[in-house]
Fold this sequence. Notes:
Shape: flat
Strand content: under 5%
Number of domains: 1
Amino acid sequence: MFNTFAVMGIPSLIAPVAVPEGVRRYALPVMVLATLLYYFITQDRELTVWEGVVLLVVYAAFLANLGTVR
């Protein structure tokens, strides 16, 4: 959390930081959905093998589609 805010926050104090359109339209919503998925999966304080596989498949799909986003 600190790293995210420090890496984007401190440089934006010096000059505006441009966020590419692909990040706003694809990457950010997918990251929010993955975070929500992780939150609901870990409600029982346990991550099963199948839940881990689901998270890995979501990540692999994200990486596969990342090259097609402009």
